[in-house]
Amino acid sequence: MNEDSFSARGICVHFDGVKAVDGVDLEIRRGEILGLVGPNGAGKTTLVNALTGFEKPTYGECSIGDRDVLGKPPHAMASVGVARTFQAGRLFNHLTVLENIEVAALKRYRLRRHAEQWAIEVVESLKLGAIRDRLAGELSHGEARTVELGRAIALKPEFLLLDEPAAGLNESESDRLVGVIAEIPRQGGCGVLIIEHDMKVIMRLCDRIHVLDHGKSLAEGTPEEIRGNAAVTEAYLGGTVMPDA
Amino acid sequence: MSYLRHRVLALETPILLSLILLLVTFVAPSAGLSIENRAIVMLINVALVVGLYSFAGLSGVLTFGHMSFMGIGAYAGALVTIPVVAKGSLLPDLPGFLANAEVSLPIAILIGGGLAALFAAIISLPIARLPGLALSLAMFAVLIICYQVEANWDSLTRGRQALLGVPTNTTIWVALATAIGAMFVVFAYQQSRFGLRLRAAREDEYSAAATGVNIVRERRISLVISGALIGVVGVVYAQYLGVFTPNDFYLDLTFMTIAMLVIGGTRSLTGAVIGPMLVAVLTYTLQQGETVTGPGLQQVGLAIVMVLVLVFRPSGLTNGKELKLSTVVTRFRQGRADRNGRSSETDKAMTAVE
Ligand SMILES: Nc1ncnc2c1ncn2[C@@H]1O[C@H](COP(=O)(O)OP(=O)(O)OP(=O)(O)O)[C@@H](O)[C@H]1O
Ligand SMILES: [Mg+2]
User: Fold this and answer.
1) What Å distances lie between residue B221 and B14, B122, B227, CA to CA?
2) CATH for A5-237 (3.60.20.10, 3.90.380.10, 3.40.50.300, 3.40.50.1470)
C-alpha cells in the first residue's frame, strides 16, 4: 500500500434498499488530481460523504497510509488532512469572507493572529482581497464558490475532495477556478479528487479518472484510457464521442 | 493596519455600549428612587441577556433553561452572605460549613459563578451532544429540575417560602460593573478563536464540521462560559432583591430574557444590550397603562412586540450589526464625498450596472 495515499476499499453505502455506493475501491494519491465522474445519481456525492465522515459506510475500509480513518467524524477527518467542498455550496453567511477562511486557518494556527495572517495570504492568492470584508451571504455565486475553495485550501489539506466546484459558473469563472485547482497539487503535494460533469474540464485537469455508475466502479484509468473505453462510452455517455483533451 | 490597532479598534463596540450604560447610571438616580431601581434591574438584565447571548446568540441554539444558572448563583450567593445569626433561625438545618459562612460580595460572586459553571460543565457532557431543538428542550428540562429542587429542598432554600435576610449589596454601581464586565467578557469570547468557531457552526453545521470545527466541544465551552456569567448575575440580583423565591428564576424570567434578546437581535452583542434597554422602557410604559386596563398588559404587550419583531425583522432590531463609530463616520464621510461629486469606486460600479 502506498504511504502517500488516501485509499478506500469496498466502500458500500446503502440507504434502506438503495445501494447508493456498492463496493467501490478508490485511491487518491498525493500530488495528483483524480476525476470522479458518472451520471446523475451514480453515487459520487455519497462516496465523498463516506470518505469525509459525513456518511457512515455500511461496509468498507478507509485509510491514509497505514492509518485507519473509517468512522471518524467530519471534524476529525479535517484534522487528519482531509478537506472537502459541497455540491450545493455552503458558506458561513453572516461571517465575512476573511472570517470564513480564518475558521479553516485556525485548524493550522492556534492563535487568531497567526490564523488571520494565513487567511489573508489565501485571500490574496485567490484575488479575493477586494471582497474580504464582505459578508459571505452577499457574494455572487462565482465569488462564493471561490471562497469555498479558499476555505478548503486554508486547511492545508493533504487530500482535497471537491464536489462539482464549478457548477453554475459561467465559462470565464469556471476557467479561472479550474486554473486554481490545477495548481493545488503543485503546492505541497496535495491529492485532489474532483467531481465534475464537464468532460472537457475533467480531461484537461485529471491525471486519472474514476467512473462510477449505479454505485459501482465502471472503469478507472488515464484520460486516454477512459476515452478509449467502450464500456464507458456506451454506458455513461450513451454513445456520444468524448471530446479531445 | 497593525494587528494591535485592529484589535483595539475592535473594542469600540463594548466601549460605546459601556458609555451608554454609564450615562444611564449617572442620570437615573436623579429621577428618583423608583427610576433608580428600574435602572438597576435594567443593568442586571443587560448582564443577564449578554450571558444568554454568549450561548444562544453565538451558537444559534435557543435555550429555555439558562435561568437555572441564575437560580444556582442566587441561592449559592445568598447562603454564603446571609449573616450567621440570621441563618440560625431562618435555616436551622443548614450543614455546618454553610451555617458558619459569611463572606463578602466578591467572594460570593466567585462562589456563585463557580458553582453555576461547574453545574454547566456537568450537564454539558450529555447536553452539548444534542442537535439544536433537542438541546433547547433538554435545557428546559434542566430548568424544571432546578426549580423543583429549589422549591422542595427546604433545609437549604426554605422551599417555596421566600429566602430573606440577604444583604442588599447591589447598588447601581455594582449593577453597572456587572453589566460592563459581562459585555467585555462576552465580546472577548465572541472575537476569540472559540467564538469564531462557534459562530461558524451557527451559520452552517456541515461546513463547520468539514472545516474542522468540533461543534460539541465549542458548545460545551459556550455552556460553561454562559453558565458562569449567568451564575454571577444571579448572585448580584439576589443581593439586589434581598428576598426571593424559586419563582424569580423560572418561566417569567425565561420568557422575558428571550424576548429581550430576540427584540434586540440574537446575532450581535449590541442587540443583547439594547434589547433589555428597550424592554425596560416598554415595560415601564405598559405598566403605566395597566392602571387603566388592569393587570396583564405588560406581558401581553411584550409578547406582541416580540411577535412583531419576529415577523418584520426576524434578526432583531440590530440585524447582526454591532454599534461602531467607525461605520457611522465612514458613512457620513461617504455621504459628504458624494455630495461633493466625488463618487467612490463602488458607486461607479453601481452606476455601471444600472
Ligand atoms: N440520504 C439519502 N437517503 C436515501 N437515498 C439517498 C440519500 N442520499 C442519496 N441517496 C440516493 O443515492 C443515490 C446517489 O446519490 P448521489 O447524490 O450520491 O449521486 P451523485 O452521483 O452525486 O449525483 P449528481 O451528479 O446528481 O450529484 C441517488 O439515487 C440518491 O437518490
Ligand atoms: Mg452529487
Assistant:
1) 22, 12, 10
2) 3.40.50.300
Q: What is the mean pLDDT of chain A?
A: 92
Residue B351 pLDDT: 33
Interfacial A residues in 206-235 facing B (CB < 8 Å) = none
C-alpha cell at B196: 469564531
Atom of ligand 1 nearest to the CA of A87: 27
How far B6 CA lies from chain A's nearest CA (Å)? Answer: 11
| CA A45–ligand 1 middle distance (angstroms) | 7
Cell numbers for B48: 443577564
Residues B38-65 have pLDDT tens digits of: 999 999 999 999 999 999 999 999 999 9
Nearest one of B5, B27, B299 to B176, comparing CA atoms: B27
- Taking CA–CA distances from B217, the nearest residue in chain A reads A75
CA distance linking residue B347 with residue B54, whole number of Å: 37
Pocket test for ligand 1, best of A46, A49, A86, A236 (most atoms within 8 A of CB): A46
Instruction: Check if the beta carbon of residue B42 is closer than 8 Å to that of residue B24.
Output: yes
Q: How many Å apart are CA A106 and CA B193, to the nearest integer?
A: 7
Helices (H) and strands (E) in chain A, counts: 9, 10
| Cβ–Cβ under 8 Å, residues B52 and B272 | yes
Q: What is the DSSP string of A106-121?
A: TTT-SSHHHHHHHHHH
Supply A149's cell numbers: 475553495
CB contacts of A90 in chain B (<8 Å) are 204, 206-207
Do residues A163 and A83 touch, judged by C-beta distance below 8 A? Answer: no
The ipTM is: 0.92
| pLDDT-derived band at A236, boundaries 50, 70, 90 | low
**Nine cell digits for residue B309:** 419583531
Instruction: Read off the pLDDT band of A228 (50, 70, 90).
Output: confident
What is the pTM (predicted TM-score) of this model? Answer: 0.91
Tell me whether A92 touches chain B (CB under 8 Å): yes
Is A46 near ligand 1, meaning CB less than 6 Å away?
A: yes
